Write a sequence for this structure.
DNA sequence: GAGGAAATGAAAATTGTTGGCAAAAGTAAA
DNA sequence: TTTACTTTTGCCAACAATTTTCATTTCCTC
């Protein structure tokens, strides 16, 4: 049976405090402010658990690698600015999902990564 | 100054011969049929060069990890079947790119990963 | 060809992630 | 509560993926 641990609670809090996709190292750093002894392996283990629970999901940043973000925040996409290398969350969806794939394919979900220049870099 | 090497030529040929996203190990295996001495580090180095040149691009398969594919093959997206775990290339584009991000964001490119069940698994 | 810079191969070094195990902590029942 | 039991944790070793180091080889220009 799954137990509630201060470590996992701390990790959940980290995601609640930072409303954006986080990398493993960020989770570890912020998490240690809540539980000083927090270990990297524990972070990995709990990220996996939280993904299995459907509480988190993993996305892949083109250069930062794996990032983790809360699920259920409403449908949104990601925008990667190749000037400042930041990831933005873009609310809404401009995909015509019914036309996204040929007949026969059952589309259940999708993920969109936009690339370009963000407003502050575009100046 | 960049030089033409038989190794990089071989790697380019591998992608021309196989019209689909390839993993590092596949590039190495197929490449060695062209240049027996081909080394893994050389593959990594040249994949990076070819990406910088805009000749290749890297995508992330949810379970296979990084895959590399030729650019300029016509716009397409990827469909991942969670039954058979295969990746399909879906031609065309159902994204309303002009509406994809708020004003101020300059959208230059995008990548869409669709998730669901493919025709053969959907029966 | 000869000279010099860039690329390669081989292996070590990093980085990112997972697994093993003894100790610590959460939970249920006494 | 305390006890008894099992899950988690922390630490560290083990892996896997990728990058770097460096001596040697290869390409390109003269």
């Amino acid at each position: 049976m799954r137990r509630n641990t201060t470590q996992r609670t701390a990790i959940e809090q980290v995601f609640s405090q930072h409303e954006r996709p986080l990398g493993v190292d960020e989770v570890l750093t912020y998490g240690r402010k809540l539980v000083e002894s927090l270990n990297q392996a524990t972070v990995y283990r709990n990220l996996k658990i939280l993904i299995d629970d459907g509480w988190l999901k993993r996305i892949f940043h083109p250069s930062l690698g794996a990032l983790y973000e809360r699920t259920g925040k409403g449908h949104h996409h990601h925008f990667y600015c190749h000037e400042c290398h930041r990831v933005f969350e873009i609310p809404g969806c401009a995909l015509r999902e019914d036309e996204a794939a040929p007949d026969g394919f059952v589309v259940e979900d999708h993920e969109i990564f936009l690339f370009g220049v963000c407003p502050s870099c575009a100046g």
Summary: The interface with chain B takes residues 60, 62, 77, 79, 88, 90, 92, 94-119, 122 of chain A (CB under 8 Å). Chain A has two domains: 6-70, 76-122. Chain A has four helices and five strands. The two ends of chain A are 53 Å apart (CA to CA).
